[in-house]
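Q: Joint fold for the lines below.
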Amino acid sequence: MQNKANRNEFDRIARYFAPLAASFPGAFGLKDDAAVISPSAGAEFVVTTDTIVAGVHYIGDEPPALIAAKLLRVNLSDLAAMGARPRAFTLNIALPKAIDDAWLEAFAAGLGADQEKLGITLIGGDSVSTPGPAVFTLTAFGEVEQGKAVRRAGARPGDLIFVSGSIGDGAFGLRVLQEQIEGLSESDSAFLIDRYRLPQPRLDLGRNLPDLAHAAADVSDGLAADLGHIALASGVRAKIQAAKVPLSAAARNAIASRSALLETALTGGDDYELVFCAPAANAPAIEALSRETGLPITQIGEIEAGDGVSVLDQDGASIILSRPGFSHE
Amino acid sequence: MQNKANRNEFDRIARYFAPLAASFPGAFGLKDDAAVISPSAGAEFVVTTDTIVAGVHYIGDEPPALIAAKLLRVNLSDLAAMGARPRAFTLNIALPKAIDDAWLEAFAAGLGADQEKLGITLIGGDSVSTPGPAVFTLTAFGEVEQGKAVRRAGARPGDLIFVSGSIGDGAFGLRVLQEQIEGLSESDSAFLIDRYRLPQPRLDLGRNLPDLAHAAADVSDGLAADLGHIALASGVRAKIQAAKVPLSAAARNAIASRSALLETALTGGDDYELVFCAPAANAPAIEALSRETGLPITQIGEIEAGDGVSVLDQDGASIILSRPGFSHE
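A: Joint structure:
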């Protein structure tokens, strides 16, 4: 947080953000021209970055702490998908005048609590003003043993396809907020909204992926789309059985009352689960990891020769997805 | 450039930005969840980041290639100030609908030409849409030998203060564009505007700073302010002689017709020169480096015990700066 800041921005950085960088010597208290950082011995860096815009990527009236936490977590989900452990991040904020100190204090407090919980530290950034909506960019640095990053490319015919947690909750949560899904119980609605607002990056699974998986992605664009990315990058076909895709009780209740929502679950995105491809020989180790971490990991299909993504119903017939998977925005 | 992009954004990334990342294997063609990067043997990373907003940090009608080049160069100036060599960068763009493919193509072409010239490579980023003005964030990674980064802290009483190039041109160029400075020759105006629009990061000097300097900063907030940052971080006083501050012929012409502009030169910012503090014993090596690189390096003062920045006129009297140096925004 260096150049071209006016005094108000210097003050805000010193007050709200410098404490988040205090434990990292190479951040120099956010007061120097840049930060200095080295990977641990034998490791290399994995770098990912996301930008969110008020009114586009979040509604705008969410608690600031939740906006901060989600921005951090979607980046950590990308690190987990590469098999990396979180290390540090930079934050760039462009703020309209309407954002006051109380809002920013709550945002920074949420970020501080979440970085503590998730084991990552702020090391730099920038703060500017804008006449438009708030724009936040977070760039996260993770570490992985040299040469061990798990890519989208690498899936091989015969690999099994696994997915963590449950799929569709995030997309349903957004639609509950938009009142496109109604009639759910209060607790189901609250569960789905929480899943949309506060993703759980699968860091414990992620750091084990280099030893287990040939390929991985996080489920952000939608399960079908992200599997499609793996299939394309690997030059293979991903075949999944829709009935095997893990659903939460709340998502099952939603689909029970409107069956078209099954497709929403498969294509909706905002899951921040991990989908990965591993040889069958690793299935016992994956099962053991699931037990150990308490995170459900479900086999949903197989990799075969070919291309694209094939989703089969219970009779083995292909389900045609009307929207195979890019997120609306 | 991964999450939550719609098809148009995927296409734009593939068409305009993926070619800029083609030479860097760990960028994975901008198609994976993250990039992978390691510092060279014995080196560590220096990380800096800047955000610019249309209508705030640039006027808006500049050629897109110049906007891209300036954004890259201000970050490289920070790397140079730390003694680092450029290595890679990420780019996040939030674009309004009004920005069409032709604009973006020109922006990417400018970035591509400049990254080639300056020896750095795009490795990742994000592209989103915004209902507000365009917002760009660039995060640059440089390399420095482990433990050799040049900080703002480190200046010692007895050090000489040096500055590269000439000071004030950027601030004057902005004011020529804003028609606050008039009556200059066409060539003087063009020179100053170019200095404002296209900073020259002092990379050759920067990479030599670890062997020469105790402390350094780039001059972005204004010479007085950036020297103030060094003085504060180092716990010393910076004393400079105003008459020694190097001025271009165009800046001298502007000051000749309006003497108050001398203060603008000392406080205006946007110079992207390097100011650094070095022991007197290194003066011959600094002079040799200046000859070798063709970059003027001028001694403008000394570090002494105390605090703050003291600017002396030709009679040794203190000049009181009305605005010791934060940039307006």
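Q: Anything notable?
A: Chain A is about 35% helix and 25% strand. Confidence is low (pLDDT under 50) at residues 325-329 of chain A.
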